Amino acid sequence: MANLFTKDEDLMKSAPYIGSEILKQLQSSDDGRISIYDLAKSLRKSNKITARSIYYGMIFLYSLDIVEFDEPYLIKNVAN
Fold this sequence. Notes:
By secondary structure, this protein is of the alpha+beta class.
């Protein structure tokens, strides 16, 4: 079984770090939502991270009730 957090993990690919990058993308959007496809495209281009890291980052934010999912969109659930 794979671990979400390990001591040997690159911190730049950890769920909390990727979650902060996702929040930056959400804050830069006009209406507090972003397409999951656009998010993945921009994060993979700028940070050279994998789809699995993006998935873990989104699940991390969802488990903290910071974001919600509405089909292709990731929606910010907090004020700021």
